From TrEMBL:
Subcellular localization, as worded in the UniProt entry: Cell membrane
Protein name per UniProt: Biotin transporter
The organism of origin for this protein: Phaeobacter gallaeciensis
Source species taxonomy: Bacteria, Pseudomonadati, Pseudomonadota, Alphaproteobacteria, Rhodobacterales
Homology family: Belongs to the BioY family.
Superkingdom classification of source: Bacteria
Gene that encodes it: bioY
Keywords linked to the UniProt accession: Cell membrane, Membrane, Transmembrane, Transmembrane helix, Transport
InterPro entries: BioY (IPR003784)
Amino acid sequence: MERSIAYIALFAALIAALGLIPQITLAFGVPVSAQSLGIMLCGTVLGARRGLLAVLLFLLLVALGLPLLSGGRGGLSVFSSPTAGFLVGFPIAAFVTGLIMERMRGIPLVATAIIAAMLGGIVVLYLFGVAGMAITLDKSFPDAAALVLIFIPGDILKAVVAGLLTAGLARARPGSLLSRNS
């Protein structure tokens, strides 16, 4: 129990730290940051339930006003910005990523982690993100989707990095990969 709580807090901090990496903010207000890598790692390392809880803890801290999002943003107002759909999708993306990690055991770990990160951390996250952008920017879903196509190559790279980091962690400290040991 204590170990799970420590991992949840550690990964919430990891998501926040990844927001400090310099980013580019596009004209319509969506920043390019490494925080989605943290969301992917929550799922690949912690699994569905713990990954979800880590992201919810992070979002609670953001909602309380801590400037933990990329660009030093925080507070309730971010939940009505063009990025709101991505924020809502963060915990669901981590959960789906973790669920795939927990259930898909028939292929090598690195491949499983990359697939899980792509499906949860890109496909699921973009469904929520694009829907949120469509609503907040008053655009159709296809028009909002066109705005985020530029992010896909970087997010694919992040999914590969998440897979490699997860596999490396499993080799270095096998017991720390909670998505496979619970």
